[in-house]
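New to this. Explain these tokens.
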Amino acid sequence: MTMWETLTRSLAAAATAATALVGAVVLSPPAHPASTTAFDWPLHPRPTVVRTYDNPEHDWLPGHRGVDLAGAPDRAVLSAGTGVVVFAGTVAGKPVVSVDHPGGLRTTYEPVTARVTAGMRVGRGTVLGYLEPGHPGCIAQVTACLHWGVRRGREYLNPLALVRAVPVRLEPVRTRGG
């Protein structure tokens, strides 16, 4: 083999390796994606809230520990944020998907026919599954409602705070003696 052939083969091998490396870098997610702390609506376009969050004073009292969003049967349900699917199955006869997010948050979506499985990493906007009809409490004019919940540990939170759709309520400043 001549020096020219050796040089040509070496350059071709280097070009192939460089192409593979560039492809891997372009196709892999960033080390710290901006979406790890950003959340979005689980239905697009932005849905109407048909039942609001109603956290009871005590854990054992009735309430509504999430929000119901107007949708339609078979509409794609999206992950509100980046995370890992921790559950995709049935709870009390209802199909549910749960996703753990950085910072200790867990979002839940039901009734959703899952397209994901436990252990899968998802990004904000990843299709988790498809909305089923029949959620109790869904108003008559809406054919399907997505119940969307969020909690940190055992504490339920208002999921609308994730998308900054909760109105800010200022409380009066309390002064000494008054």
